[in-house]
Amino acid sequence: DAGVTQSPTHLIKTRGQQVTLRCSPKSGHDTVSWYQQALGQGPQFIFQYYEEEERQRGNFPDRFSGHQFPNYSSELNVNALLLGDSALYLCASSRTSLELFFGEGSRLTVL
Amino acid sequence: AQTVTQSQPEMSVQEAETVTLSCTYDTSESNYYLFWYKQPPSRQMILVIRQEAYKQQNATENRFSVNFQKAAKSFSLKISDSQLGDTAMYFCAFTSIIQGAQKLVFGQGTRLTINP
Hints:
heterodimer, A: Immunoglobulin-like, seven-stranded mixed beta sheet, B: Immunoglobulin-like, six-stranded mixed beta sheet
């Protein structure tokens, strides 16, 4: 049983570019959340998707957007990248439980 | 807004020793959950233990136990008989019942090193 898988694992972008990160939830999970973890910090909640809709959102600008597909996989899009967007982006999935299963993250470096 | 504070950026102990990681939080909610997550160098966050605020009994999972002091808003993690594999970043996290398990508020983390 595959856990949460994320792609790509690492990527480098330049300021002003756009990036798309992808996440496949654990089998049987229908809810996906995204977190941003800056170096040396704890993760910060970006948003949650359930039934293909954004259900909750953290304190992130509109440059951060997402999508959930009918197969429950999800994408995180960040437009007009800033240096401060450099971070590890974590995807987590769950299904009506109190345990989130996290992926290994996508490390984004903005130059 | 809820906040979670971990005041120990780094800790180091010898293998087989017991270590306690501290966490305090601030919330006006009465129904919530607290968690400890472990993040090894592989970067994957792994749930260590969970505590429901309405339960007075402290949660225990094998060598891991918590000391939950609701009035003091304190939630410490004790690791007994520490092992080399326990070396990792440890994060304390909070979520309210209303927000469900998805919107976790994390502390800054404690880097724990277990020395042979």
